[in-house]
Amino acid sequence: MDEEKNRLASVGRLCDIVARLRGPGGCPWDGAQTHESLKPACIEETAEVLGGIDILRETGRAENLKEELGDLLLQVVFHAQLAKEEGLFSLEDVAQAAADKMVRRHPHVFHEPMLDDAGKPLTGWKEIKAQEKKGREWEEDYLPHAFEEAAALIEQAKKRKGISS
Q1: pTM of the model
Q2: Which residues form the NTP pyrophosphohydrolase MazG-like domain (predicted)?
Q3: What is the CATH number of the domain that holds 7?
């Protein structure tokens, strides 16, 4: 139980820090950020997690991966704080949605399978995902541009870090 309390306290502390940084008397830079302005940092932190995984694989040292996962978690918390301020959703909503999705997509572990419109059990990840996204297929239309934008942001990050292609 202490481990769970510590885990929740650590995440709560990070949320409180981000809220304070964005609040009155906080950091002007943090207070000025938007979902759009944080896109480069989100991409850069994701790439740094990949580097941390490579470091772990090649050296067995986990310090860098821990640090970079923390930076990526900070991105999630920051975006959730922005969304909360905008009245859209909270970090708790994000966590709940992710947990619910994992349970739905693992019926072999958590529950009986979802059923499709004809009452047929859905047991495969792709089938379940397709059922969940029914009526929202148009969202995939945004992916090609998002991947192009991610590639451009990666190139910008490489230049900032002095990494040649």
Answers
A1: 0.86
A2: 33-110
A3: 1.10.287.1080
